[in-house]
Every structure is written in C-alpha cells, then in structure tokens.
Amino acid sequence: MKIVSIVGARPQFIKAVLVSRELRKNHEEVLVHTGQHYDMELSKIFFDELIIPKPGYNLEIGSDTHARQTGRMMIGIERVLIAEKPDLVLVYGDTNSTVAGALAAVKLRIPVAHVEAGPRMFDKSVPEEINRVLTDHVSTLLFAPTQRAVDNLRGEGIEEGVYLTGDVMLDSFLYFSKVAERESRILDRLGLKGGEYLLATVHRARNTEIGGNLQSIVNAFLSTDKTIVFPVHPRTEKRLKQCSLYQRLKSASNIILIGPVGYLDSIVLTKNAKKILTDSGGLQKEAYFSQVPCITLDEATAWPETVEDEWNILVGSDKEKIIEAVSRFEPKGKQKERFGDGRAVGRIAEIMQDAK
What is the pTM of this model? Predict the structure, then answer.
C-alpha cells in the first residue's frame, strides 16, 4: 500500500516518527512536510534529533492567516496527491496541516486515516477544535487515543472505522525518554537541578493574540518567587515584544527565557520540573506521563482525563488563579491507564495492514 503522511508542526513530528518507522516495514510511505512550522528550532531540529525520514516534499507554506495558510496547503497537497496517487492519506492531530491534508484527500476520493481522532474541547472558538471535528467527519480510519475520544465520536454519530488504539504520544514519550536521559544536557546548560523550577510554555492564540490575557499570564509569572524556565515560541516572542512584556521577563530574576527546544531537551525539562504551566495540549499529556503537576493556562482542555485524575488544573489566564495554583496545587488522585499501554503504534500499523 502507498501512503502519503502529512505533517507540519512539532506535535505531528513527535507522533509521526515511530508510526512512520513501523509503516515503512510493509508499505511505501511518502512524507509531506507542509512547512507550517518553518523555524529551525520548530522543524529541522526535530527531524535531525528524532531521525525522522526526510520528507519527500516540503511545501514551505510558512506562517499566514488560517484561511490563506490552509488554502495554500490544500493546493500544494493536492498536487502531491495527484502526482503520487496514494491508496491512503495519513494525518495527525488538529493543526491546519491536518485539516488541509484531510480535505485535499477526500476531494480526490482518497481515504483518510486520522491519528488522534476524537478529542474535544467543546469550544468552537478554538481553531484546533474546528480542525479536529472536520477531519474526523471525513476520515475512513479513526485512531482514538482514549475511551473518551471514542465516546465523543459516537456522540457525533461516528462509529464505523473507529479504533481505540491508545496514544502514540505515549509511545514516543516512553521511547525517547531513554534517549533523552543519555543525550540531553539541558539542565547542566541552564544550571538547574530537578524539582527546583517550573516549566512554562504559552502559544495558543487566545493567550497570545489577546493582549490582556498575555499580560495577566506574564504578571503571574513575575509575581512568584519560583524559578520559571520559559522556552518562548516565535509567535509568542513577537507578541511579547509588541505588548512591551518581553523585556520585563528578560530582566526578571526568576525567569529563564530560552528559545524553543528540541524534543529530547523538552522531555528532560518536563520530567524534572516541579510543576508545568502551559496552554499546550501535548505538554499537558507529557506532564501527566511524567507524573508532574500541570497548571493549564486555558479554560478548557482536549484531555479532561488529566483533570479528572487531578493531575491537571484549569486556570485560564487569571493572574490570581495562576499564582494560587503555583503555590498550592498538588495532585490528589491516582493516575489510571488513560492513554494506553505504550503500544499504540503497533496497533495502528496492524489495522492499516488489514485495511489494504
């Protein structure tokens, strides 16, 4: 079987690496990088350190408005699909690359397989929510990471082609944690010890594009005496500078501003943090995998399982809630096997083999 796999952003690189390796044992795979994440730190470094197969195509789309970016991706992906004539298109997660790949494929009557189908925030003001809903409703094979994801799909009338596989992010996290322990030197470079710092990331549009929200988050960071390691996303850095907040963070004695990090360094920073502050769905899960308390800088999450187990708390951008959580939030619940057993990749490959 010939498969075209579409990736374009950091979470997709992490999800795709082990799936791609497994698929290539029995299938012909063509990897298409849309170029949604075009910065060196957000793209090439992941391909290099995770040893992801070189893309057959790099569309080099870059940043733009949602409509223009998605439209340009669809045009580029359509050209690839017409040239390659695959039997199946494989997409991951909830980015513009995901929905562009899915729509381009179904318009050409090519079946779509969706890794990480079914998570819902039930908030259509979130662009990623629109992407995942549209993708699920046009997909033929839907690989659900959790039972809740299966239930969400059933609630929308999607039952055929749905498989509970577990989360490929857990597979990758477990596999690359061993590599990271050997190779990452990030703690030494930053002069840090485990359990003595908080790790923060901010990149969601509702936090970066709404100046009041970003300012509230920054004020919360500056109001704690805890050391905060803050890898800054390029879009976030731009907004921080526009809002005159970047210099305040840079000059603060408790804030360590660094550029985006690769996956191995990210794993080490996550596993050794005292707490995580983030609006990233992926990092919420990685905090859970690491048994590190997570403070989510959002009003909703696509991974309510982490909240139900009381390892994650939603505080939005509210300064006082953030400060309170930094000071007092501690997990009370026992973790369950919410995201599978670390063997999702094998299940997905087996299902795709049977679907030939």
Answer: 0.93
